Amino acid sequence: MEAFQKVHPLEFYKKFLERSVRPDGRGLDCFRKINISTGSIMTTDGSSFVKIGNTSVIAGVKAEVALTPTQSDNSISSNNNNNNNKMFVNVEMGPICSNIFSSSKPSEKAMSLCSQLNSLVNRLEINDKELYFDDQGKYSWYLYIDLYCLDYNGNLMDACVLAIMSALKNVKLPKGIVVESSASEAPQLFKDTEQPMRSLNIGTYLIPQTFVLLNDYLLTDPSLEEEKLSSGTISITFNDRFEICTLLYTGITSISEKILEQCLEKTKKRSTEIINLIDNCCTTINNSNNNNNI
Amino acid sequence: MSKLSYISPEGLRIDGRRSNEIRRLNMRMGVLNRADGSSYYEQGNTKITVAIYGPHESTTQKSLFDRASIKCEFAMSSFSTSERKVKSRFDKTAYETSTLIKQAFESTVLTHLFPRSQIDIYVQVLQSDGGLKSAAINAVTLAMIDAGIPMRDYVCACSATFIEGSALMDLNHMEERSGGADLLLSIHPQLGGVISINMESKVPQEMFESVLDMALAGCKKIYYLLQEQVKKHSKDLMSNQLVG
């Protein structure tokens, strides 16, 4: 049987898809088991570890302080203007997750995922005031979100989006005090340790879902083999008001509107499940032995 | 500003340990699915995950005709240290640690059984609190065993130093920075040989011997715990096979 899978992978899959099931026993619309655990890395300001089936991604958020850029009246502001970004996402897919990636040259997949996530993270509707370091907002927090893929078994986009969401929800920032010293010296910045750390108020949730087209069948949450055999990939991200934040289709065949509508509907249906998942992982009390999910 | 005392008058260190106690170990084998062997290793607050691919066909021209070549890469996550450090391409300390691990395992793995093949070791540091090199070596030992690659013996490593008149084993970040004799020892615990010994400091000979003894004792303690973990993991695997 394994020989058949290696020699004729597409035929092997067809035999399962005809009965509306996949080789690992899932239905065509079923997700793999998602595990999210937050707060394991103590050197970060917020961290999370997401596992979709065997695909594992770890996210760490580090916050740094810098001057808030002043809004000049002449600047053209648009949604695609990245000058006022306060959050930066970096994705690393090294050889640890799969031996097809090299460590020196970032793969195309990592770079494209990185740019998609960077634009997506601005859809989280985090008010600028949330990221102010001091009360007046002269200085701001800049969040660097680093994602490391530890195990690559398909559907990295969803894992990364969930990791970013849960890591940001786990972020705890201290209150800041700015002490102005003499005119020649730069003002000194301190963390106010008397006040409790505050969490970020994130305006919305991101609900990701990735589909793959294999032989005219639409599969949700593709595993690595399914991704390799597919003729097209559709990635959708909604926010909790069902507005489309990301809609990506790449592939060698064209898709009809009907398939796109099906995908949008299926993503909407899972929204409450995903929202509950993210909420549950952040409200559980994290003790030091938090790495059982790894 | 008062001087930080590494050892309190009662003989306790900054984190409450005695001079001859190692940090708490938390280990898992077989944590990553795609790799042939993997492990997750925690030593105190230092958290490392290792993936091993191999032995497989050599991807570079540097294949050796009579044995396997071992390639190692050591990477620190940007969020692993207290200050965010972006991984630069030519990080000397990362290369040094990679070479250390590569040499340790070239002497231990039975490479003559796999001519013209390659074994890749990838170490990813998730959180760093001192003792990185020794933790990495221990983590790679577990991952090698998980991958089923035959070895002569375990490789156990431990660090030790001499601060304020006493030798300490298994240093955390603050103790490493103290400027004492930071010794890294890695041994074959059962065969009884030293694989590598690194020290970058100036010490008198008597002090050196006590530090060396302390490191040796640390390695033996770690070996005992690694062995327990391997037995436990094997038992779990066997019971899964019998049931399923």
Automatic annotation (TrEMBL), chain A:
Gene Ontology, cellular component aspect = cytoplasmic exosome (RNase complex); nuclear exosome (RNase complex); nucleolus
Q: Does the keyword Cytoplasm apply?
A: yes
Keywords, in A-Z order = Cytoplasm, Exosome, Nucleus, RNA-binding, rRNA processing
Residues annotated as domain Exoribonuclease phosphorolytic: 31-174, 210-269
Q: Which InterPro entries match?
A: ExoRNase_PH_dom1, ExoRNase_PH_dom2, ExoRNase_PH_dom2_sf, Exosome_comp_Rrp42_subfam, PNPase/RNase_PH_dom_sf, Ribosomal_Su5_D2-typ_SF
Where in or outside the cell it occurs: the entry states: Cytoplasm; Nucleus, Nucleolus
The record's annotation in Pfam families points to:
RNase_PH (PF01138), RNase_PH_C (PF03725)
What does the sequence similarity comment in the record state about its family? Answer: Belongs to the RNase PH family.
PANTHER family from the UniProt entry: EXOSOME COMPLEX COMPONENT RRP43, EXOSOME COMPLEX EXONUCLEASE RIBOSOMAL RNA PROCESSING PROTEIN
The entry's protein name is Ribosomal RNA-processing protein 43
Species name: Cavenderia fasciculata (Slime mold)
TrEMBL record, chain B:
Which Pfam families does this entry report, sorted A to Z?
RNase_PH, RNase_PH_C
Which segments constitute the Exoribonuclease phosphorolytic domain?
Answer: 21-150, 153-217
Q: Mind listing the GO biological process terms from this record?
A: nuclear mRNA surveillance; poly(A)-dependent snoRNA 3'-end processing; rRNA catabolic process; U4 snRNA 3'-end processing
Known SUPFAM superfamilies for this protein?
A: Ribonuclease PH domain 2-like, Ribosomal protein S5 domain 2-like
Q: What is its main location?
A: cytoplasm
Location in or out of the cell: Cytoplasm; Nucleus, Nucleolus
Q: Which UniProt keywords apply?
A: Cytoplasm, Exonuclease, Exosome, Hydrolase, Nuclease
Q: Which Gene3D superfamilies match?
A: GHMP Kinase, N-terminal domain
Entry's Gene Ontology cellular component terms: cytoplasmic exosome (RNase complex); nuclear exosome (RNase complex); nucleolus
Family to which the UniProt record says this protein belongs: Belongs to the RNase PH family.
Q: Under what name is this protein listed?
A: Exosome complex exonuclease rrp41
Q: Please tell me the species this chain comes from.
A: Cavenderia fasciculata (Slime mold)
